[in-house]
Specification:
about 240 residues, alpha/beta, OB fold (Dihydrolipoamide Acetyltransferase, E2P), 2 domains, five-stranded parallel β-sheet, five-stranded antiparallel β-sheet, elongated, Sig_transdc_resp-reg_receiver, DNA binding, phosphoprotein, CheY-like_superfamily, DNA-binding response regulator
């Protein structure tokens, strides 16, 4: 199979180097590694023979969205794949006709799906556009309050009650939800990546503050002050890859 020719732009040197490495490991030919939006626009002044352009959204000089707008405004260019740590940009990214949308840290599996889509010229799917973080109700006295998923570290099921954990004034606290199984939680947030690290624990990877190895191939992740969660041996390699380790 002929390798995809790609270019990428990210103002963070480590993130740029990691993405370039992942692309090369996936069989791509990396034609350019650019440090900011202005460099991308300068590079695109002449037609480029590339199959895709991977753009960080938040860059100095010109954001990834501004570069995409330039391409949409009559300038010929390759399909754009946005790369960012912030899921709230998803809607604007797809309004800009992005070919795909990747959340950092990028896993090799997720990147492989993007590359397959680029090779096939397939249309965007809902999987590629994470929805803005939803809220969900939890019990508060006789009523309910709403938690933002972005503030939730993990979900725990205990005796057919699902508890959502979220920090309050720096201290992790659990809140009772209406769900009875973790499968119901997963179904409630389609397109949001949640990792089942134990049979009773569902983790939001972006909430991880640190990770340390344990005996037997297991790991412990810190999600709050004084709160560590054990990750099963079977899940540890996948979670480490998801975290860019």
């Amino acid at each position: 199979m002929k390798p995809l020719r790609v270019a990428l732009a990210d103002d963070e040197p480590l993130a740029r180097a990691r993405l370039a490495r992942l692309l090369r490991e996936a069989g791509c030919e990396v034609k350019a590694e650019l440090a900011d939006g202005a460099a991308v626009l300068a590079w695109l002044r002449e037609p480029k023979d590339v199959d895709a352009l991977f753009l960080d959204i938040q860059m100095p000089g010109a954001t990834g969205l501004e570069v995409a707008a330039e391409l949409a405004d009559g300038r010929q260019g390759p399909p754009v794949v946005f790369v960012t740590a912030h899921s709230e940009h998803a809607v604007r990214a797809f309004e800009a006709a992005a070919a795909d949308y990747l959340l950092k840290p990028i896993s090799a599996d997720r990147l492989a799906r993007t590359l397959a889509r680029l090779r096939e010229g397939a249309p965007r799917r809902a999987e590629a556009a994470p929805a803005p973080s939803p809220r969900f109700p939890v019990k508060a006295g006789e009523g309910h309050v709403f938690l933002d998923l972005r503030r939730t570290t993990h979900f725990e099921v205990e005796e057919e009650v699902v508890w959502a954990w979220a920090p309050a004034q720096g201290t992790p606290q659990r809140h009772r939800t209406a769900w009875t199984t973790l499968a119901e939680v997963e179904a409630a947030f389609p397109g949001v990546e949640l990792v089942r690290i134990q049979r009773h624990l569902l983790l939001r990877p972006e909430a991880v503050l640190g990770l340390r190895p344990l005996e037997g191939g297991r790991a412990a992740v810190r999600v709050g002050e004084g709160l560590d969660l054990e990750v099963s041996r079977s899940v540890t390699p996948r979670l480490k890859e998801r975290l860019g380790l």
